[in-house]
Design brief:
This protein is α+β, with helices and mostly antiparallel strands and 225 residues long. It has 2 domains: 4-65, 434 Repressor (Amino-terminal Domain); 78-219, Umud Fragment, subunit A (Ribbon), CATH 2.10.109.10. The chain has 7 helices and 9 strands, in the order αααααβαβαβββββββ. It is elongated. Mean pLDDT is 80; it is low at 88-98. InterPro entries: Cro/C1-type_HTH, Lambda_DNA-bd_dom_sf, LexA-like, LexA/Signal_pep-like_sf, Peptidase_S24_S26A/B/C, TransReg_Diox_bact_type. One of its GO terms (cellular component) is cytosol. GO terms for molecular function: DNA binding; DNA-binding transcription factor activity.
């Protein structure tokens, strides 16, 4: 059985291997930086739930984190993924690139596991008022989008959908149902306080103009206790 000292060393080693600061890993795992620092110093033991969140944030498994199995694809490579705010994420790629707030280094193994090409990955910081998927993804979370054009729509998947309000561009995250005959897109929320909405596609309008990409991963916007 792994000792507290061994776990603290291994967690610190894997974090540095992924190119993450304590702040970045804590944010992804939904714990406070102080708590993460205590784990890395061997002063605190994480619960099983926290171990799972830490492993997920590192793009690995609990078994690998505990040293019980090798990584599926060992790699120290990280990929800088652009981070944008939800109110400017719906523009064309050049527009998004002009409004990048920064870059988050994500493990290449994480993107590979999720099936996302690095050039198609973008992080979107949701606003605190984005609570339509609150039962699944909390307001203020940062979501990872795969911008590969969707070949088909499935209600089990969460998508980023383009929104326009006057001169403001942005996106919202929803589950979708598409009626091919009428070309009506139904936007569904996991939060029952939000009613379904409908968007009718114009004749000849490609789906990619409305559906920006798939939500494939997310991390909390606030640190847990």
């Amino acid at each position: 059985q792994m000792t507290t000292e061994q776990l603290s060393w291994r967690l610190r080693h894997l974090r540095k291997l992924a190119g993450l600061s304590q702040e970045a890993l804590a944010r992804r795992a939904g714990v406070s930086r102080n708590f993460l620092a205590q784990i890395e110093r061997g002063q605190s033991l994480p619960t099983v739930a926290v171990l799972r969140r830490l492993a997920s944030a590192l793009g690995t498994t609990v078994a690998h984190l505990l040293g019980e199995e090798p990584p599926a694809a060992p790699s120290a490579e990280t990929v800088p993924v652009p981070l944008v705010a939800d109110r400017i994420a719906a523009g064309p790629p050049a527009f998004v690139n002009d409004h990048v707030e920064g870059y988050e280094p994500l493990p290449a193994t994480l993107l590979k596991t999720l099936g996302v090409e690095p050039s198609r990955a973008v992080l979107v910081r949701l606003g605190k008022d984005q609570d339509s998927m609150a039962d699944t993804i909390p307001p203020g979370a940062t979501v990872l989008l795969d911008l590969t054009p969707a070949e088909h729509i499935t209600p089990k998947q969460i998508y980023a959908v383009r929104e326009e309000a006057g001169d403001s561009l942005g996106c919202t995250i929803k589950r979708l149902v598409l009626d091919p005959s009428s070309r009506v897109l139904i936007l569904l929320s996991d939060n029952p306080a939000h009613l379904p909405r409908a968007i009718r596609l114009r004749p000849g309008q490609p789906l990619s103009e409305v559906v920006l990409g798939r939500v494939v991963w997310w991390m909390p916007g606030k640190h847990g206790p």
